[in-house]
Amino acid sequence: MKANLSNDAVVRNLQPAEKPYYCMSDDKNEKGFGVLVYPTGSMTFVFKYKIDGTQKLLKLGEYPKEKLAYLRAEYLKASLRVKDLRRGSADGVDPVAKIKREKLQRIAEAAAQSQLLTVSELITEYIDKHAKPNKRGWKEDKRILDHDALPVWGKRKAADITKRDVVLLLERIVERGSPGSANNNFKIIRKMFTFAVERDILQQSPCVGVKMPAPLIRKDRYLDENEIRIFWNNLDSCHVSDDVRRALKLILLTGQRPGEVIGMHTDEIDGTWWTIPVERSKNKRAHHVYLTASALELIGELKVLDEKTNEMKPKGFIFPTPLTKKIQHIENTVPAQAIRRNLAVPVLVNGKPVFDKKGNPITENKLGVADFTPHDLRRTCATFMSKIGFMDETIDAVLNHTKQGIIRTYNVNRYDKEIQQALESWERKLNSIITGSESKVIPISRRAA
Predict the structure, then answer these.
(1) Does residue 315 contact residue 327 with C-beta atoms inside 8 Å?
(2) What is the pLDDT of residues 191-203, one digit of tens each?
(3) How far is the C-alpha of 49 from the C-alpha of 69, rounded, in Å?
(4) Which of 230-234, 296-300, 304-308 has the lowest mean pLDDT?
(5) What structural domains and CATH numbers belong to the chain?
(6) E strands of 209-333, at which residues?
(7) H or E element, residue 22
(8) Cβ distance 271 to 349 under 8 Å?
(9) Do the Cβ atoms of 230 and 279 come closer than 8 Å?
């Protein structure tokens, strides 16, 4: 098949077929210039030529990603080099052979570079090239790698790390009493070395064949009524900032993910509804959360006085960081750190820590409840909504869980009404728990029935 490949309209009108086909230029001066048309409709311009009786094919570029003028110019340069090569000119070059040589050279250079790359440099490249662009929680990846892998392996060559090194590092973390941290380390270390293989930094990952260092524990921790009451009341006297205190309570009250609550912004709030945008939602779906009276009270004023203009302006982040001049919210890890600190506060006598007979510091649990995390507050909210009588579909809607199976395709209901009913009922139940007053909490849906 031939066509006028110098005309954009002609090229655009080339129709795909069941199988890929080749269309060559009808211009006798453009020998070997053509386009491959695929069943999907995509097009790749190519240059077909022979060197010493061997057929070669050079890909010039994708159309219409590359303009036709550019593709024709690339063809012209390649064809002139082939003509020079056939004439024996020193300027001649086989374009395909040149590309292969350059590729082999890049692979060789990458292999040589990988022998010099240290683990510290690999961590930096992994964070900059993979974690930051793809993970909202990239700072946690960096924290984990900096805490354990970097001090032990930092100066070693990445290519020298063996399976045995990985096993010993993970065992050391388990032996210090942190099996959960060992599992998290393994997940991040494994991803980092897989990243190195994908980028031709390493030929093989030392994590291949390594098992999870500790048994995976099913997360089912939630606070019962007594723990909720103690936690809520003790939180006011703990060593935490007002922002962290309000954020923790808001996580329990709304059931939303800790990171999404921490990043709350006035732009996301419209009256009694808070919309978590796509870019901040874990499942990449915008999510509507009804804000009860208690939630709005915890959020506080949405506008502040601008000292320069003496006018009221939007507050911005509801939980802004106090540690930097940058306009951003407090770090996502801060609530978890605050809980850990207050679960074991060193006991001081005359300003000095007190130790037991074994030399261990004596600590006090300021929160008054057993170990838990901010995410357990979200689970607590969901559990009590279930106890009140709400169905799983409504609870999943509150939590912004992705629908499963065929229902995901056909049910596009946002459940705004049900979300409001569930959160209002949970607010009443939570208030009765905190105050100790008995109040029968009945879902509105059940009451109407």
Answers:
(1) no
(2) 999 999 998 888 8
(3) 20
(4) 304-308
(5) 2-94 (3.30.160.390), 117-198 (1.10.150.130), 225-448 (1.10.443.10)
(6) 269-270, 273-276, 287-290, 303-306, 311-314
(7) strand 21-25
(8) no
(9) no
